[in-house]
């Protein structure tokens, strides 16, 4: 529901965004940065003094050289290093910089220098929900597809997936627009279980994979709407409390924009894929297919050196940004939420 989510975002009166934006906060830099290049990202657990380590001077010098390379020079160098040569010039520059940065940090880590850690798994979620062609301002969207795609951040592969359809309660009859947009038929939702039962199976699926217990993980979404709007509204409709494991997540649009230094207008799913030299695979607006394509973007970003971190959260019904200075935490062990009654 990529573009459709954009349309309904401005009509959301239930959730307010905090004025404090993570991407507007200045990041400390105790070294001289090359022109147009920000300080390299490091784990929030590291002190500011880590920037004085000689490895960052080497990274800065390499970045300055890469900034002066033409698109063809970038492509040749990436090919020499057996790295992906697809994407626009800015993406290729970022990929080459990240390669050298990772190389230098790995060398530094072997010598006792600064390092970075990743979540063991990232769980991509992209709901499909009931909708009308022109949603009234008070329209309550109900989740009708609950997909999850699991990324192993160590192997950089999609390793598992979950999908179930959900029977809507308030508006059980899907609109023709919704059926055409999502490909979800009336028969699919009529034969599905209500949301609380599906959520229980989601929790069991996460528990079986030992997420939050043995392995550190985070939820990732394409925008803020899935958690702050769709899941928030659905939990109220189903009279259950908002699940703790979904209260913080990675908004990949923010991460993509910050990492590749592009405006918000270039962070739609189709645009991110295009800029990375990728093509959409599957049926657009299928929740599972959308989730898989979002996962492909996340994997490419990890390959390019992006440190995906939780950047949004829900608190007291409000959508808030998580500052980059916040401690890195994985999602808690999943449990079934309590009833509101």
Average pLDDT works out at 84
Relative helix content:
25-40%
- What overall form do the CA principal axes indicate? globular
Tell me the structural class: alpha+beta
Order of helices and strands: HHHHEEEEHHHEHEHHHEE
- What is the terminal-to-terminal distance? 31 Å
Give the C-alpha Rg: 21 Å
Q: Return residue spans where pLDDT drops below 50 for at least 5 consecutive residues.
A: 10-50, 112-116
Query: What is the number of beta strands?
Result: 8
Report the total helices: 11
Q: How does the major sheet shape up?
A: 8 strands, mixed
Note the beta-strand portion.
Answer: 5-15%
Structure description:
- The chain is 37% helix and 13% strand.
- The protein has eleven helices and eight strands.
- The protein has helices spanning 2-9, 54-67, 71-80, 89-110, 176-182, 186-190, 195-208, 225-237, 252-260, 269-275, 287-303; strands at residues 121-125, 128-129, 143-152, 157-165, 217-221, 248-251, 312-315, 318-321.
- Strands 1, 2, 3, 4, 5, 6, 7 and 8 form an eight-stranded mixed sheet that branches.
- The longest helix has 22 residues, at 89-110.
Keywords for this entry:
341 residues; alpha+beta; single chain; eight-stranded mixed beta sheet
């Amino acid at each position: 529901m990529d573009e459709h989510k954009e349309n309904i975002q401005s009509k959301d009166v239930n959730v307010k965004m905090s004025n404090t934006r993570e991407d507007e906060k200045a990041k400390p830099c105790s070294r001289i940065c090359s022109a147009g290049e920000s300080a390299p990202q490091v784990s929030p657990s590291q002190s500011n003094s880590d920037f004085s380590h000689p490895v960052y001077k080497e990274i800065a010098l390499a970045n300055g050289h890469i900034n002066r390379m033409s698109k063809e020079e970038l492509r040749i160098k990436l090919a020499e290093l057996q790295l992906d040569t697809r994407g626009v010039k800015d993406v290729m520059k970022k990929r080459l910089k990240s390669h050298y940065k990772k190389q230098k940090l790995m060398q530094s880590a072997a010598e006792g220098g600064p390092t970075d850690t990743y979540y063991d798994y990232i769980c991509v979620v992209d709901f499909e929900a009931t909708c009308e062609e022109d949603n009234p301002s008070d329209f309550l969207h109900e989740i009708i597809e609950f997909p999850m795609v699991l990324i192993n951040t160590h192997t950089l592969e999609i390793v598992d997936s979950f999908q179930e359809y959900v029977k809507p309660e308030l508006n059980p009859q899907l609109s023709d627009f919704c059926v055409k947009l999502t490909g979800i038929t009336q028969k699919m939702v009529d034969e599905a279980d209500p949301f609380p039962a599906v959520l229980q199976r989601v929790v069991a699926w996460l528990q079986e994979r030992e997420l939050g217990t043995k392995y550190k993980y985070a939820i990732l979404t394409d925008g803020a709407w899935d958690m702050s709007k769709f899941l928030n509204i659905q939990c109220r409709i189903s009279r259950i409390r908002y699940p703790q494991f979904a209260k913080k997540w990675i908004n990949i649009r923010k991460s993509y924009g910050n990492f590749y230094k592009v405006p918000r207008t270039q962070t739609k799913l189709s645009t991110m894929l295009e800029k990375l030299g990728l093509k959409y695979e599957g049926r657009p607006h299928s929740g599972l297919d959308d989730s898989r394509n979002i996962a492909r973007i996340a994997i490419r970003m990890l390959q390019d050196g992006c440190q995906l971190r939780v950047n949004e959260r829900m608190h007291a019904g409000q959508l808030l940004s998580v500052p980059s200075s916040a401690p890195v935490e994985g999602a808690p062990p999943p449990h079934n939420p309590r009833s509101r009654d």
